[in-house]
Amino acid sequence: MKVAYYPGCSLHGTAQEYDESTRMVCKALDIELEEIDDWNCCGASSAHSTNDKLSVALAARNLALAEKTACSTLTVPCSACFQRLKAADFRIRENAELAREITSLIEMPYSGNLEVLQIIQILARPEIVERVREKVKKPLKDLRTVCYYGCLTVRPPKVTKVGDYEDPMYMDVLMQAVGADNRFWSYKTECCSGGLAMARSDVTKRLSGILLNMADEADAECVVLSCPMCHANLETRQSALLAERRIPKKIPIFYVTELLALAMDIRDVAKLWPKHLVDPRPLLVSKGLG
Amino acid sequence: MPTKEITESQLDSQLVKEVEAKSHTKVSSCFQCLKCSSGCPLSYEMDYLPAQVIRMVNLGLRDEVLKSRTIWVCASCETCTTRCPNDIDIAHVMDTLREMALRSGKAEAEQDMRRFHEAFLSAIKTWGRVHELQMIGTYKLKTRKFMEDADIGMEMFKRGKIKLIPEPIKGRKAVKKLFRKT
């Protein structure tokens, strides 16, 4: 299976471990990723917060470039990028006048026949989960996980087309497949504060603090997620939160693809652990997974 | 929240029409069930609840909504849009109000949020992609908050997570044009 791949700016920067682990896992599962040529930033929250047309146009340029790959599916690992591309795709399909305006702006055609999917939506397909199960060499036995989806993979469902948007299961199914002791909690789709982190770090601390406390209450030892913004917000605020005694302890934050790579015993995944601000190695060693 | 008397001269009947046209959603169908506001994770930071903003748009309190803090602390989590029984795209209304506030020069509250958006967009305009180091630098220059989160920046830098060199795309001109024409 070959799919077009849009990594987005974070995966080429602070979330390199997400990009690398996504590539490792897809390779092992025979999913060929074709990175779209010369992609640009999706515009993220700054574009849609300040200039509606620009936000659609920036995202649409990437959709048009993805269509040039001849792949029928475009996958996006970053939830924020995913939602921007999906929203532009939705708006263009829905509004012929806007579609004309946008294609003239980007000077490229876009037929709207592309299927845009968050990477976890592909990985959680039954046939892929089966493939994952067959390839597990190191079951994540006894590793107590909670899966955190955040906002932009699931909302708004009219755009994302996610059915179980209040209780998504994509990553839970994957964690169960690799043998983790996966916990359920009711904070799967709560907000981490997203793009407020730079200007209002107090808000980020409060919201990520709630999530970390709730993960602890579910008796999880780590959080599994699929968004670079959620990852940064949950990971980088832990030192300050612990110093202020607002969380009981630090816990590692994993990209779901990192844990899949670990369970499939892809050696290179160990190179990613030093990139974490909360070192996951002591936990992994204690579980015999180090 | 203090109660304020509304005078007729404050009411701008064009506001709801303008917001509905720009956000492609029927703000006037709100019946104030407050579902948006009870589920909003940022409501504690807001001067007006999301439902109140919708009400104010319907009433025509233009300056009050455009100057509000609410529109800038909204994190666009889309919980309100998802749960609205009247299918009002409240998150899009927030986008529309932010854009209107900026274009009319009425944006007042949460200046650092606007500076962040400016820094972020200027990075895209220059390179086609966001170079995090440059974006953060631009933001710091705008806000003069040089030391805030410097410890986190150092930790990321030590782990090789921050790229020093930007990745300019070939289509920089095409991207710049999108900025110019929108």
Outline the structure in words.
The complex is a heterodimer of chains A (290) and B (182). Helix content of chain A is 48%, strand content 11%. Chain A is α/β, with parallel strands linked by helices and 290 residues long. Chain A has two domains: 2-119, Glutathione S-transferase Yfyf (Class Pi), Chain A, domain 2; 129-286, 3-Layer(aba) Sandwich (Rossmann fold), CATH 3.40.50.11810. Chain A contains 15 helices and eight strands. Helix content of chain B is 55%, strand content 0%. Chain B has helices at 14-23, 35-38, 50-59, 62-66, 70-73, 79-83, 90-103, 111-127, 132-143, 150-158, 172-181. The interface between A and B is large, with 53 and 61 residues.
Major beta-sheet overview of chain A: 4 strands, parallel
Tell me how many strands of chain B there are: 0
Low-confidence stretches of chain B: none
Strand order of the largest sheet of chain A: 2-1-3-4
What is the CATH third-level topology name of the largest domain in chain B? Fumarate Reductase Iron-sulfur Protein, Chain B, domain 2
Number of helices of chain B: 11
**Could you say what the CATH architecture of the largest domain in chain A is?**
3-Layer(aba) Sandwich
| Protein chains sharing the most extensive interface | A-B, 53 and 61 residues
The number of helical segments of chain A is: 15
Indicate the proportion of strand residues of chain B: under 5%
Number of strands of chain A: 8
* CATH level 1 class label of the largest domain in chain A: Alpha Beta
**Rg of chain A:** 19 Å
Q: What oligomeric arrangement do these chains adopt? A: heterodimer
Shape of chain A: globular
* Estimated helix fraction of chain A: 40-55%
Strand content of chain A: 5-15%
Distance between the termini of chain B: 38 Å
